[in-house]
Structure formats: C-alpha cells, structure tokens
Amino acid sequence: MKRQKYRLILLGMICLLFMSMNGLMIYSILELQKAVKTLDKSMGNNQTQLEEQIDSISYNFQKTLQEQNRYISSFEFIYDDLNAKTGKIGLKVKVVTKESQQNTRLLVTYEEEGGKTHTVPAVRQSDNLFEAEFEIPYNKDYHIGVLIKENNTTRQEYLDWVYNIESQMQLQVTGAYLDGDYSYNGDGELKVSGTVHLDVYNPNDSNPIKGVEDNYIKAVNAHIYIDGVEQVVIPMEQDENTSGGNEYVCEVDQKMEFAQGQQFELAVEIQDSLGFHYKTYALQGTADPNGELNIDNYNYGYVEINP
User: In terms of C-beta density within 10 A (0-12 exposed, 13-18 middle, 19 or more buried), how is residue 10 classed?
Assistant: First the structure.
C-alpha cells in the first residue's frame, strides 16, 4: 500500500516537472514571437522613415530645379571676332524671360574659374528679350549667370559655362623636319640642303563656336637663324599631293659662315588669320671645337605659340 502511494507521489512529481518545463518553453516561445513582432515593427518604421526622407530629398531637388529655371525661357551665347593681339573675344548673351514685367531688370554675371565675378547690365530689346554685350579673355573658363531683379527682390539663375576658346581656335602644328643633309667641316662653313616639311591641321572644320570665322593659315615660311640672327627666309607652299591635313614644303640649299660655339636653327613659322604666331624647329645644332655639328633634339616637335 505504501509502495503504491509512493509511486503515485513520484508520478505526480514527474508530471509537475514535465508541465513546468513545457510551460517555460511555451513562455519562451511567446516572448520570442513578441520580440520578433517588435523588431518587424521597428524595421518597418525605419523603412518608412527612410522612404519618406528619400521622397523629401527628391521633392526638394525637383522644386529647386523648377524654382531655378522658371524665370528664363531660353538663352543664347553669340561670339564676336577673336583677335590674338587684344587677347579678348566679344560675347553677347541673349536671355528670353518667361514673364514680361516692365519693372524687371537683368544683370549678367560671369565668374572666372578662380572665383572673381563681374557684372554687366542687360538691355531690354523687347518685352521678354534682354541682351548683354561684353568682352572676356579667351584663354579662361567662365560661369555665366543672370541676376533677375523685380521689386527689390533678386533671383539668380545659372546658365552655362563658356570654356577656354583659345585652344579651340588655334591651329594644330604637329612639327617640322628636314628631309636632306647638312655638313660642317670646322673651316667656318655650314651647308644645309634638302626639303623642309611641316604638318599643320585646322581644328575648326566642326568647331561648335558660332559667330567666329574658321581660322586659316595666312603665311608659312622657313627661317634660318645663327645665334638668333635671321639669315634667310624661304616661303613654304602647300603640298597638294597630301590628304588628311595640310603639309607645307620648301627646298633649302644654303651655305653660310658658321664659327665654333655658334648656334644654328632651321625654324618654320606660321601666321594665322586670328593673329597667332607659331614657331617650330626642323633642325638645331651647335658647332664644337672638333668640327662637328652637335644636333639638339630637345625642341624637336615643340611649338611656340604667341600673339
């Protein structure tokens, strides 16, 4: 009887232990599910906030663009003649506004690459058309903008960049060379003979700048210098047998006095229609005490460009 009683007590204790373990597991599972739900909710809130921030940034960006461009309907840059001697080019800015108000004033600003700003008043040509004319150095980049003044309120709109025009208008001189021979025997006489060749290209066949005539070659000459003193000038003519560019040639057959230590230069010089002067070297050398002409290849292919 006692044994049976003890068995029942032991069985009851086992049942209670089993129930308590299951209860703990169930409680843990419920807490885990609750934590997962809380995490999901938190992540959902963060995702919603992120999407709202992205939408806000996009809206503000679009709004800024609309605000920035709502006053100007169109604009145009018109270039005047470029002259290398003055170092400047004329520029006309035509601005068409979207609204016509008699109390509207426009000021065109142009900012150099270094940050220096200049302001030019625009003249009203019609209800919506304004024009400003000024000159800028052609060898710098400029940021062009417009200040719109209405009833003591100033609004600024940025238009575009005017890029370095000089490099776009210059001829492309690839270099000159002598197809011939030279000799110096140490007796004070230098002989040079052969054909001088020059390759030069005009980059303006598809130049996007309007209002400026294409640059063209006015004159090409070969020059012989001794210690910087010009000895002879030989005109060069365009070789009609070449294609894909312009090649100029001339024949040279010269004998000249040439002493020890003196420097010899066979240079080719080009003058273009904009006033640029180009100089490159076909042959350079210095006489040494041993009766040799030491050729200097340092400047071969180098091109000097000056107004």
Answer: exposed
